[in-house]
Amino acid sequence: MPGASFRFKPFNLGRAVIWGLFALVLLLAPLLFTSSLSQTMLSQMGIAIIVCLSYNMLLGQGGMLSFGHAVYSGMGSFLAIHTLNAVTGGLPLPVSLIPVVGGLAGMAVAVLLGWVTTKKSATTFAMITLGVGELVWAMSLMFPEFFGGEGGVSGNRVTGAKPLGISYGPQIQLYYLIAIYTFVCTGLMFAFTLTPLGRMLNAVRDNPERVEFVGYDTQKVRYLAFIIAAFFAGISGGLAALNFEIVTSEVVSGARSGAYLLFTFLGGATFFFGPIIGAILMVLAFVLLSELTKAWLLYLGFVFLLMIIYAPGGVAALIMMNLRVAMFGHLRRLWVGYVGLGLTALVVLLSGGAMIEMIYHVQLNVATGPELTFLGIRLNAASADSWFGSAFVMLTGIGLFELCRRQFLQNWSDIQQNIEDEVQRRGGQ
To answer: Fewest CB within a 10 Å sphere: which of 38, 78, 244, 269?
Structure first.
C-alpha cells in the first residue's frame, strides 16, 4: 500500500536456540529412554503439554478460571475414537489426521457453548464452566449410543493406509506423531500470544473496563480465545484417543478438569513454559507416584497447598526469579539457604509421609498385620514408638524449616534491594 510502512522484527537468536533445543529433546527423548514404560510416559507428556498450554490460554493469558476444560478435550477424544472406527469401516482418512478431527470437534462444542460461558467473567465464568462440565459428564452416562456407557468406546489405531510402512502400532511410531503435534501446537499457541488478539486477551485479563472504554467487546475477545483454546484441547483429546485406544466418560469429568487446573498452576500460569513443566509433573504423578503409594492424591494436595503459600507463581516463577538473581551474580549467596530449606523440607516430608502411610495401612491393610515398610524403614502402626518418633521428627523439621525460611527471606530481600539499586545505577549511567 502507498505510504504504508512495515517493520520486521530482527531475528531472535536466543528464541531460535530454545525452539531448536525443544525440537531436539522431542526427537531424542525416546532414543534415550527406550523402555516401553518410558515411551508411553513420553507420549502422555506430549498430550498433556498441549492440553495444559491450551488451558493456560484461558487461565494465564485471559484470567478465565475454568472448571470444565475437560469437556473440550474429552469431546475431541470421543469424536476422534468414532472417526477411528469409521476409518476401520472404510473412511478414507489418514490416521495421522484424526487428532485434527478431535480439534475441530472441541472447537465446534466451544462455538456452541462458549458464547453463554463467556458472557460473564471472574467467579461467574468459573461457576458456568463448572455447571457445563457437570452437565456434559452427566450426559456421557445418559447417552450410551455415543459415549459408550460405563465401558466407553474402544478402537484400533492400526488401521487404514500405512504410508512408508507406518502403522502406529509400535509405541515409538505413535510417539513421534504426538511429538510432531506437540511441537506444532506449542509453536502455534506461542505465536497466538504475539498476535493482536493475544495481546487484547491480556488486556481483558488486566483491565476489562479500559478495554470496553476504548471500544472493544470483551466478551468477543474471551469467546474467540475460548474457541481457540478448545481447538487445541480437542487435538490433545484426539491424540489421547489414539494413544489409549479407548475413551470413557472419565475424560469429561470434573476430576480431569481439576487436574488441568492443578498442574497448570503448579507449573506456573504466568509464564508460557510453566504449563509444560506442569504437564510433565502431571504424568509423573499419575503414572509413577500413584504406583508408589495409595495416598498419592493426599500428597498432591499438600504440595498444592505449599505452592500456594510459599510459591504462588509456580515452578516457572521460581526458575525465572533465580535466573534474574544469577544474572546479577548473587545466586551464590542463596545456595546455603536452598540446601537448608531442601533438607528440612525433606525431613518434614519423610516423617509426615511415615505417619500418612501408617494411617493408610491401618485403614486399608489391617488384615496384613500392623507392620509395614516405608522407604526401607520398618514401621509398626500398632506401636507408640513409630507414631511418637515420626511426630517428633516432623515437628522438629517444621521448626527448622521455619527458621531456615525466615533467614532465607531476609537474604532474598537484601539481594532484591541490591539488584534494584544496581538497576537504577545502570540506568543513571
So the answer is: 38
Indicate if 298 and 362 belong to the same structural domain: no
**pLDDT the model gives residue 368:** 82
Neighbours of 367 (CB within 10 A): 5
Specify whether the CB–CB gap between 396 and 346 falls below 8 A.
no
Closest among 232, 199, 226, 239 to 42, alpha carbons compared: 239
Q: Residue 180: which of 50, 33, 51 has the closest Cα?
A: 50
CA distance 255 to 252: 8
Q: Is the pLDDT of residue 13 over 90?
A: no
* Mean pLDDT of the chain, nearest integer: 91
- Quote the number of domains for the chain: 2
Tell me the whole-structure pTM to 2 decimals.
Answer: 0.91
Do residues 291 and 336 both lie within one domain?
Answer: no
- The pLDDT, as a whole number, for residue 283 is 95
Dihedral pair phi/psi, residue 217, rounded to 5°: -90, 110
Q: What is the pLDDT of residue 302?
A: 87
| Alpha-carbon torsion, ordered 67, 71, 77, 82, to 10 deg | 170
